[in-house]
Amino acid sequence: MTLSASGVDPDITLEDALSQIPRISAATNITQSDLSRLVGQNIERTSWILGDEYVNVLRLNLALIQEYQSTYQKLDPALFAQ
Known about the structure:
The protein contains 4 helices and 3 strands, in the order βααββαα.
């Protein structure tokens, strides 16, 4: 997943993460359902019960790299340049 708008925030909204799934899937050949599952596993809340949902970008990216090491070793680093 990409960074937030400022490029330094550690998380993005759930909506933003979900909107990136088709693009990430096309670039990596990781299925959209697998990406959705990983996004779902990295949802956090600003408050315990009623807080807004967000996705921890660092944890999500680490999970992607761990589960799909061979995919990320083959990708052109230019895909991640901003």
